[in-house]
Amino acid sequence: MENFISWIGDLGFKCKNNKHEFILDVIKEKEGQDLGPSPKEALLSSIASCSGMDVVAILKKMRDLPEIFSVEINFKTNKSHPVYFTEIHLHYKLEGKTQPKSALKAVQASLTKYCGVSYMISKVVKISYTVTLNHKEIGKGEANFIDPID
């Protein structure tokens, strides 16, 4: 896997992963150019999209896909340097005819077995979640992975 970064000035970096390129930066108030998300913002998006991909794949196998699906990410950080996440909360929002049991099973499977990004981060930060279907809460919990046996 090809993966490297190159400095583009101020605090910005062009990232190349295989054939994909993107920019990580910070806002102008932090001496960046605001050309892309910050590394921490990208990490949050990676957690949510990794888990979201699991949820979609599982629901697709169940033939119970939602019409609309999103994950809202909330977090808390400490106050001093190094600034890091102390809590992460994922709010899975599904709309459509998906069955509540299917939605919960898919999210729980992602956050107990499949999502490698959430697994790694859950070792140092509590990850909690809420699942809503058609604007009604149907479940909540915490990421709870069992360490794989290699």
What is the secondary structure topology, with strand pairs?
Blueprint: E1 3-9, E2 12-17, E3 20-24, H1 39-61, E4 68-77, E5 85-95, H2 100-114, H3 116-122, E6 126-133, E7 136-142
Parallel strand pairs: 5-6
Antiparallel strand pairs: 1-2, 2-3, 4-5, 6-7
**Number of separate structural domains:** 2
Give the helix level as a range of percent: 25-40%
Radius of gyration: 17 Å
The level 1 CATH classification of the largest domain is Alpha Beta
* Contiguous uncertain segments of 5+ residues: none
The DSSP helix count reads 3
Please give the alpha-carbon distance between the first and last residues.
Answer: 22 Å
Within the CATH hierarchy, at the fold level, what is the topology of the largest domain? GMP Synthetase, Chain A, domain 3
Q: What is the succession of H and E elements? A: EEEHEEHHEE
- Under CATH, the homologous superfamily of the largest domain reads K homology (KH) domain
Mean pLDDT: 96
Derived structural class: alpha+beta
Largest sheet: 4 strands, mixed
Which percent band covers the strand fraction?
Answer: 35-45%
**Approximate shape:** globular
If strands are numbered along the chain, what order do they take across the biggest sheet? 4-5-6-7
Overview in brief:
This protein has 150 residues and is an alpha+beta fold. The protein folds into 2 domains: 1-36; 39-142, GMP Synthetase, Chain A, domain 3 (2-Layer Sandwich).
Salient structural properties:
single chain, 150 residues, GMP Synthetase, Chain A, domain 3, three-stranded antiparallel β-sheet, 36% strand
